Amino acid sequence: MATSLLLLADTHLPVRAKDLPAEVWTAVEEADVVVHAGDWVDVRLLDALESRARRLVGVFGNNDHGELRTRLPEVARAEVEGVRIGVVHETGQAKGREDRMSGLYPDLDVLVFGHSHIPWDSTTATGLRLLNPGSPTDRRRQPHCTYLTATAARGELRDVTLHRVARP
């Protein structure tokens, strides 16, 4: 059986947008598991995702305070169809990221992270897949707002797809 995943980070609601784009809410409703790698900013988004997602795995980011830090961990782990997934907001600078994360998370197959708003997909020498979905609401210096979808099945992560968010 395959399990569909939606990967989000750096939503910064309501600072960067008043709500998630409609296509992201559609993806939330279609996904079996929603992963959010921090910087929610407002607890109302956590409440909304908890009520609409089948399963939610999330962490707090550097811009998350108060109730978000009370309700969310700094690092989360989940096993989905035999794929060992970790979630963290910050991984430090891009240079040396693969080696640092391999050393910190030797027990994972996939590490989802955020913070930079820059989409990232790489695999370390140890086989750890590093994924940053970018941001669906704040592109910063990127050409597009983005998010990722993927499928977990039989211990493998498949069909990792970067989606550009259509401008309203």
Automatic annotation (TrEMBL):
Keyword Metal-binding in annotation: yes
Source species of the chain: Nocardioides exalbidus
Superkingdom classification of source: Bacteria
Cofactor(s) listed in the protein's UniProt record: a divalent metal cation
Name of the molecule in the record: Phosphoesterase
Keywords from the UniProt entry: Metal-binding
All copies of domain Calcineurin-like phosphoesterase, residue ranges: 5-152
SUPFAM superfamilies referenced in this protein's UniProt entry, alphabetically: Metallo-dependent phosphatases
Protein EC: 3.1.4.-
Family membership: Belongs to the metallophosphoesterase superfamily. YfcE family.
Keyword Cell cycle applies: no
Pfam families named in the record: Metallophos_2
GO molecular function, one term: hydrolase activity
